[in-house]
């Protein structure tokens, strides 16, 4: 599932912080986290109500409140994360990029939310595993 690919790449940026993209990696990481969140929400609506998956993300986030099985916390968390990440990805004069600590927390929150929304990490393909000698 693409949600977890975005999260894996964001995690590698948080761990490695390549010199080639010094200064750019925090916003790149925030973009990946936002894409992961949007993918998890899209996946949920594709399963539950495909018509909702065709609406803008703000409408999809508002619609989460009407899924009674979720309860009140996941929709509020999704809205908070999306707003925070949207603010973080856009450059504003006199505003700092998000810190590694903020990004790591958002990463954890997006991962937990993706699992709550029913996203599943794909099982490793045994055929793709390297042979051990």
Name its key features.
mainly alpha; 5 helices
Structural write-up:
The chain has 133 residues and is mainly α. The chain contains 5 helices and no strands. Helix 2 packs antiparallel against helix 4 and helix 4 packs antiparallel against helix 5. The chain is elongated, with a radius of gyration of 16 Å. The two termini are 30 Å apart.
Helix content: 55-70%
From the spread of the alpha carbons, the general shape counts as: elongated
- List low-pLDDT spans: none
- SS summary, helix count: 5
Strand tally is 0
Q: What's the helix-strand series?
A: HHHHH
Overall residue-averaged pLDDT value: 87
Most strands sheet: none
In short:
The chain has helices at residues 2-16, 25-48, 57-63, 73-89, 100-116. It contains five helices and no strands.
Give the SSE map.
Elements: H1 2-16, H2 25-48, H3 57-63, H4 73-89, H5 100-116
Helix pairs in contact: 1-2, 1-5, 2-4, 2-5, 4-5
């Amino acid at each position: 599932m693409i949600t977890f690919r975005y999260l894996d790449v964001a995690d590698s940026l948080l761990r490695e912080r390549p010199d080639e993209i010094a200064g750019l990696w925090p916003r790149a990481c925030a973009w990946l986290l936002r894409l992961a969140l949007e993918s998890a929400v899209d996946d949920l609506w594709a399963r539950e109500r495909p018509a909702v998956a065709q609406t803008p993300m703000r409408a999809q986030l508002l619609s989460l409140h009407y899924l009674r099985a979720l309860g009140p916390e996941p929709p509020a968390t999704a809205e908070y994360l999306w707003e925070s990440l949207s603010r973080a990805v856009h450059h504003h004069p006199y505003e700092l990029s998000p810190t590694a600590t903020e990004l790591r927390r958002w990463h954890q929150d997006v991962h937990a939310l993706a699992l709550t929304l029913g996203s599943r990490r794909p099982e490793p393909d045994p055929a793709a595993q390297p042979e051990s000698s």
